[in-house]
Amino acid sequence: MSPDRRGRGTAGARGAIVGAALVGAAVLAGSEWRAWRISRAGYPDAAEPGPPDGADVVVVLGYPGRRDGSPGIVQRWRTRIARRSAPPDALFVFTGGAVHGDVPEAVTMARYAQRLGIRTDRIVRETRATTTRENLALSLPWLVGARSIRLASDTGHARRARQYLRELDPALHARLLPTRDFLPLETGPLRLALLIHDAVAARVRAHRARRALGPHP
């Protein structure tokens, strides 16, 4: 091969790499912007506090972990979101049953929370829930008397949980305060993957709900 051809081939390869990098950066930037928007959606226009002597409750939504009971990356992420979003002396409600293993999600995540420095006496575990709606419904005993409520999860899932809480109990939804589920570039492509997964899952659930209702007369 002549030097000129080798040079053109090298330049073409470099151009392809640069082009792919630019496309990847654009996709990542777009997903970060969308995640930022989603992280601010679904909250009440103005939060209405509950009983003044109630607790500031942070509900930490479960996620399947490893079969050996150690926390997976999403479980650790959701727990860190809860910790950094909580006011002093908050009550943490970890919710999630043993969906994909023998150890309840709430137990695994609560153990990790203790490693992060969250006090044992400020942790409760709800270990029966197997869906997001059950996470909220089974956490009601700690929510009804709460002064404020925060729902801690990854960005797309947290928005869906806020919607479910509004459907479950609008008065409790009115007590919602923001969580810090968005930090720029946190977890990189994982957030994009979870956003896509949550969007697809929401469409599937909506389709099933429409089918369950049957055809309109």
Q: Short summary of the structure?
A:
The chain is an alpha/beta fold and 217 residues long. It has 8 helices and 4 strands.
Question: Structural class of the secondary elements?
Answer: alpha/beta
Radius of gyration over all CA atoms, rounded? 21 Å
- Overall pLDDT confidence: 85
Range of strand content: 5-15%
CATH class of the domain at 56-181: Alpha Beta
How many helical stretches? 8
**Strand order in space, largest sheet:** 3-2-1-4
**Major sheet description:** 4 strands, parallel
End-to-end CA span = 73 Å
Order of helices and strands: HEHEHEHHEHHH
The number of E-state strands comes to: 4
Return residue spans where pLDDT drops below 50 for at least 5 consecutive residues: none
What CATH architecture of the domain at 56-181 would you give?
Answer: 3-Layer(aba) Sandwich
CATH homologous superfamily annotation of the domain at 56-181? HUPs
| CATH fold call of the domain at 56-181 | Rossmann fold
Roughly what percent helix? 40-55%
The coarse silhouette is globular
Tell me what you see in this structure.
Residues 56-197 form the DUF218 domain. Pfam families: DUF218. It is a single chain. The protein has helices at residues 3-38, 73-85, 105-115, 132-137, 140-143, 155-168, 170-173, 189-213, and strands spanning 56-61, 91-95, 123-126, 148-152. The chain has a domain at 56-181: Rossmann fold. With 217 residues, the protein is of the alpha/beta class. A four-stranded parallel sheet has the order 3-2-1-4. α1 (3-38) packs across α8, α2 (73-85) packs across α3 and α6 (155-168) packs parallel to α8. The model has no long low-confidence stretch (mean pLDDT 85). The chain is 52% helix and 9% strand.
